[in-house]
Amino acid sequence: MTEFGSLVGEQMGSYFGSAVAVTDLNGDRLDDIIVGAPFYADYKSLTAFDNGRVYIFYQTSDKKFRPQRRDILDGPDSESRFGMAVSGLRDINYDGFEDLCVGAPYAGEDKRGAIYIYHGSKRGIITDVSQVIYAKDVSPTLSGFGISISGGIDQDGNSYPDILTGAYSSDSAVFFRTRPVVRVIASLKINPDILDLEVKECQLPDGTKITCFNLISCLTYDGYGVPDYLTLNSTVVFDVKSNTSGSQEQRVFLMQAPTKYTKQDIYRLTARNPSCITTHAYLKNDPDDKLSPIKITLTFTLMEDPDRALRPILDAYIPVATSITTQIKKDCGIDNVCVPNLSVQLYGVTPTHIIGNPGILEILVIVNNFGEDSFNTRLWIDLPPGVAYNTIISQKSSVPISCGNFNQTLVVCDLGNPFKQKSQPSDFTLVLTPTNTNDTKDELIVNFFANSSNEEKSNDYENNYAKGVIPVTAVAEIALLGKSSPEFIILNITEHKGEEDGSRIVKHVFQLINQGQCATNETELQIRWPSYDKNGNPVLPLEAPLIIEGNGKCDTIVITPSNAQKYDKSTYIEKETDRNKRNTDSQTISCSEKYCTIIQCLVGHMLPRDNFIVTVVSQFKPKSFIQRREETQMYNIKSIARARVRSVPYDFKTVDVSKFETRKIELVTTVNTDRLKPASKGVEIWIIALAVTAGLLMLLLLILLLWWCGFFKRKKPEEEGYFVVNGKSNIDDKIVD
């Protein structure tokens, strides 16, 4: 005996070599060595021990066993003592490679043992176990099952090697007969192989013309020691959806059951003789998904025959399903693969959006396809915050366009299925409605992206995108209203010359209104109040506090010759360009350069329709006023207010506060100093009575004169010299007296 070498275990106490078997697991006609180490423990685990391990060493062409070229099988359970017995089984499934059985006498939940069957392959042992037989599955009394194994001998004459296993704790041995392995071959064929939606050769019971096809499914079987006949169950599923498929539309149905898309059949086969079944199916008209392949699968199972003593089993390494795919015919050339080239262009974008303006926003959209047919073509529109989809108008397209909300900010438009190559562009106007754009920055950006189910060339995607930009601005619109109370003061100079008092309250009310659609942040209101005339004489001095209603505050500055230089007129909202005209007009009393009361107000944040009201209250003293005026003069006492927005609560580059308009209003209280002078003496009563009596007498005389002249006497028709015949007058029948 010649020693080729030695193999040493890797863990002390693992009982490496307590069980050894020799067989050819990789089919190279060289014996491989299987070594058991049933007490091997995984020290990384604190609770697992005596798991067991099996080593497979492969012989090389130079008849060496190198430790580096090996496979390892680990026991699945603690204390199972996996590898206590190992045995070659020869080729139990007739795949050309010998197989292995490993015993673990304390495996399983009940620790009564199990045996593990592994198959060989060209690359060596398949480390995934093929079959596990537990003691509890064989008999409730077995224990220590798998302590010893003997295999590789056909005991029942069915051409398959069998297995004999010992169960020492129950004084038993179990004989396992190997079941014949059946290899089933399945095939599918579709006729026609491409489905043309334009060809409608079949008809549904309701008369609908549809595209139909035939599916031919065939099964056959063979194997060593297999029965002469077998029965298989099959299931066909049409238009199977993959997990990654976006569309869940069912496109194919059975002709015999127009609402079903699965079919079950029974095949009764004889060995090595194929059996085929033809199934009639149809493709529904105008499916949404015309691009995805139509997949059809056939699965089969072996029908159990209770009369057989040893029933066969399907080969575990041959799939029990097969599939075939077909396509819907497309106008995409010989390869039937469509490569579109979509392009998005924008025109007619709304030039500007004013904050608060509820008016619609419009964007003209044009989508072209410069490539081959595009399927499930969609235009995705990403809206900015504060803007909502309204509708589309002015459609111009070869197919109807439909748009709707995908979610709160995303709109999707269907452009056609298919969107034909080089067809009329999809042209429409997108209408949007601003809902709340107060938080918007300088622009409203609307992003557009067109795509389809079929992919484009990588360098063609750039023109699938487009961006619509609508500048945002704010326009402040304020109104300045006012009312004077009273509007007229009528004085009797004679009566007031001796009065000591007789003052009258004069009120001018100024109302600032935000009548625009956006808020204002700061607004300046200036009131020029005529407390004194140009000579410094009191006119309407302020003797009561201002009455302020609204968000703002006011300061009062009284300008006199002593401080006129201190207040630069540039601080006013607007210079008084008509000052000279007013000063030379003796009937108008208003502010002058030397004497003026300036009421300067700074109004805070105002929402649309908010108000700010200032009421100026003064005392008008007639006596002091009359003493310095001409007796017959009428005077207009005028206050002037101006307002201008200084800032808005929006940080827009497009907002130019200097261009906001200044509002102006003039309120006048008119003083009339002569309308109440004593009136002229009236007409005496006796004169009025005499005049009335004379008038009546003259009327009576006129009536008598007319009566005497025959004015009130009427003549009869026959006295006029006419004769009426048969109801008609005739000039020839006139009789002259």
UniProtKB/TrEMBL annotation:
<keyword id="KW-0130">Cell adhesion</keyword>
<dbReference type="InterPro" id="IPR000413">
    <property type="entry name" value="Integrin_alpha"/>
</dbReference>
<dbReference type="GO" id="GO:0009897">
    <property type="term" value="C:external side of plasma membrane"/>
</dbReference>
<feature type="transmembrane region" description="Helical">
    <location>
        <begin position="685"/>
        <end position="708"/>
    </location>
</feature>
<dbReference type="InterPro" id="IPR028994">
    <property type="entry name" value="Integrin_alpha_N"/>
</dbReference>
<comment type="similarity">
    <text>Belongs to the integrin alpha chain family.</text>
</comment>
<dbReference type="GO" id="GO:0008305">
    <property type="term" value="C:integrin complex"/>
</dbReference>
<dbReference type="GO" id="GO:0098609">
    <property type="term" value="P:cell-cell adhesion"/>
</dbReference>
<protein>
    <submittedName>
        <fullName>Uncharacterized protein</fullName>
    </submittedName>
</protein>
<keyword id="KW-0401">Integrin</keyword>
<dbReference type="InterPro" id="IPR013649">
    <property type="entry name" value="Integrin_alpha_Ig-like_1"/>
</dbReference>
<dbReference type="GO" id="GO:0005178">
    <property type="term" value="F:integrin binding"/>
</dbReference>
<feature type="repeat" description="FG-GAP">
    <location>
        <begin position="68"/>
        <end position="127"/>
    </location>
</feature>
<dbReference type="InterPro" id="IPR013519">
    <property type="entry name" value="Int_alpha_beta-p"/>
</dbReference>
<dbReference type="GO" id="GO:0007160">
    <property type="term" value="P:cell-matrix adhesion"/>
</dbReference>
<feature type="domain" description="Integrin alpha second immunoglobulin-like">
    <location>
        <begin position="332"/>
        <end position="460"/>
    </location>
</feature>
<dbReference type="InterPro" id="IPR032695">
    <property type="entry name" value="Integrin_dom_sf"/>
</dbReference>
<feature type="domain" description="Integrin alpha third immunoglobulin-like">
    <location>
        <begin position="497"/>
        <end position="672"/>
    </location>
</feature>
<feature type="domain" description="Integrin alpha first immunoglubulin-like">
    <location>
        <begin position="178"/>
        <end position="330"/>
    </location>
</feature>
<dbReference type="InterPro" id="IPR013517">
    <property type="entry name" value="FG-GAP"/>
</dbReference>
<dbReference type="Pfam" id="PF20806">
    <property type="entry name" value="Integrin_A_Ig_3"/>
</dbReference>
<dbReference type="InterPro" id="IPR048285">
    <property type="entry name" value="Integrin_alpha_Ig-like_2"/>
</dbReference>
<keyword id="KW-0472">Membrane</keyword>
<dbReference type="GO" id="GO:0007229">
    <property type="term" value="P:integrin-mediated signaling pathway"/>
</dbReference>
<keyword id="KW-1133">Transmembrane helix</keyword>
<keyword id="KW-0812">Transmembrane</keyword>
<keyword id="KW-0732">Signal</keyword>
<dbReference type="GO" id="GO:0033627">
    <property type="term" value="P:cell adhesion mediated by integrin"/>
</dbReference>
<keyword id="KW-0675">Receptor</keyword>
<keyword id="KW-0325">Glycoprotein</keyword>
<dbReference type="InterPro" id="IPR048286">
    <property type="entry name" value="Integrin_alpha_Ig-like_3"/>
</dbReference>
<keyword id="KW-0677">Repeat</keyword>
<feature type="repeat" description="FG-GAP">
    <location>
        <begin position="1"/>
        <end position="66"/>
    </location>
</feature>
<dbReference type="Pfam" id="PF20805">
    <property type="entry name" value="Integrin_A_Ig_2"/>
</dbReference>
<dbReference type="Pfam" id="PF08441">
    <property type="entry name" value="Integrin_A_Ig_1"/>
</dbReference>
<dbReference type="Pfam" id="PF01839">
    <property type="entry name" value="FG-GAP"/>
</dbReference>
<feature type="repeat" description="FG-GAP">
    <location>
        <begin position="131"/>
        <end position="193"/>
    </location>
</feature>
